[in-house]
Design a protein that fits this description.
The complex is a heterodimer of chains A (110) and B (114).
Chain A lengths: L8 E5 L4 E6 L8 E7 L6 E6 L4 E2 L4 E4 L5 E6 L8 E8 L12 E6 L1
Parallel strand pairs in A: 1-9
Antiparallel strand pairs in A: 2-7, 3-4, 3-8, 5-6, 6-7, 8-9
Chain B lengths: L3 E4 L2 E4 L4 E8 L5 E7 L6 E7 L2 E5 L6 E7 L2 E7 L7 E8 L9 E2 L3 E5 L1
Parallel strand pairs in B: 2-11
Antiparallel strand pairs in B: 1-3, 3-8, 4-5, 4-9, 5-6, 7-8, 9-10, 9-11
Classes of the chains: A mainly beta (110), B mainly beta (114).
C-alpha cells in the first residue's frame, strides 16, 4: 500500500487559513490523492481529491506539488467545526480500498 | 441524498451472543464496505462487496460474517466475539469508479463485547 506521512497534530485559530501537509514520495504516476476527515463521534467524510492539478471545492483546496511527492490541503477560513482528524490517502490504480494512515489531528482555537 | 444509515448506533453483547449490524444506502452505489476502528486509531478495512459479491476480505476472523442481500443493504453478522473486538464498526458505500471513487461513510455502530 502506498504510504503517506502527515504531522500528528496541528493547531490553528478560528477564521484563519490552515495548511495541512502530506508527503507521499513513493507516489506513482497514476495514483490519486484523496483527503478525508473524521469529526468527533462521526464516520470519515470525503473532502477533496486530485491527480496533478490543483483542485478547489466548497470545502477546501488541494495544492499538489509539481513532482507530486507532496500535497497540501488548504482550509481557507477555519471554523470550530473544522476540528477533526484529516487523512491523506493515495488511491492506487485498480484498488477499491482506502488505506488510512494515522492522520493529522487539527485543533481550532476560538 | 448522500446518507449511509447504520443500525444500531450502540450494541453491547456477550461473548456467546449472536448479533448483526446493518447498513443501508439509497444512492445506487454498487460497492459497499465494512471498516473497523479502534479508539484513537484510523479505520481499517475488513470487507468489500462489489456488485453484491464479496471482492475483498482482509483476513478477517470467521466470527465476523458479512452479507450483502441486495445492492442497498449490507449486514455484518457477529458470533462468539472477543472483548478485543470492541470497536467502532463503520460502513461505507461508493459508485465503484476506480481511483476517483468517493466513499460515503455512516456514523458507525459502537460495539462493546463483555
Amino acid at each position: 500500500d502506498a504510504k503517506t506521512t502527515q504531522p500528528n497534530s496541528m493547531e490553528s485559530n478560528e477564521e484563519e487559513p490552515v495548511h495541512l501537509p502530506c508527503n507521499h514520495s513513493t507516489i506513482s504516476g497514476t495514483d490519486y490523492i484523496h483527503w478525508y476527515r473524521q469529526l468527533p463521534s462521526q464516520g470519515p467524510e470525503y473532502v477533496i481529491h486530485g491527480l496533478t492539478s490543483n483542485v478547489n471545492n466548497r470545502m477546501a483546496s488541494l495544492a499538489i506539488a509539481e513532482d507530486r511527492k507532496s500535497s497540501t490541503l488548504i482550509l481557507h477560513r477555519a471554523t470550530l467545526r473544522d476540528a477533526a482528524v484529516y487523512y491523506c490517502i493515495l488511491k492506487i490504480q485498480g484498488a477499491q480500498k482506502l488505506v488510512f494512515g494515522q492522520g493529522t489531528r487539527l485543533t481550532i482555537n476560538p | 441524498d448522500t446518507e449511509v444509515t447504520q443500525t444500531p448506533k450502540h450494541l453491547v453483547m456477550g461473548m456467546t451472543n449472536k448479533k448483526s449490524l446493518k447498513c443501508e444506502q439509497h444512492m445506487g452505489h454498487r460497492a459497499m464496505y465494512w471498516y473497523k476502528q479502534k479508539a484513537k486509531k484510523p479505520p481499517e478495512l475488513m470487507f468489500v462487496y462489489s456488485y453484491e459479491k464479496l471482492s475483498i476480505n482482509e483476513s478477517v476472523p470467521s466470527r465476523f460474517s458479512p452479507e450483502c442481500p441486495n445492492s442497498s443493504l449490507l449486514n455484518l453478522h457477529l458470533h462468539a466475539l472477543q472483548p478485543e473486538d470492541s470497536a467502532l464498526y463503520l460502513c461505507a458505500s461508493s459508485q465503484n469508479r476506480g481511483r476517483g471513487d468517493i466513499q460515503y461513510f455512516g456514523a458507525g455502530t459502537r460495539l462493546s463485547v463483555l
